[in-house]
Amino acid sequence: MSTTQDLTDAEFAELDELLAATPEPLQPLDASMLDGYLCGVIVQPRLIEADEWLPNIFDYDGGLLPDSVDATWLDRLTQLVERRHAALNKRLAEDGWFDPVVLEVDEEQQPDPLPEDASEEEQSARASYDALGPLSRALMPWVAGFQHAALCFPELADMPNDDISAALARLYRHLPAETDEEKEVVATLNREFPLNDLDDAIEEMVATVADLADLTEAERYRVETIRRDTPKVGRNDPCPCGSGRKYKVCHGSN
Question: What is this structure's pTM?
Answer without folding.
Answer: 0.82
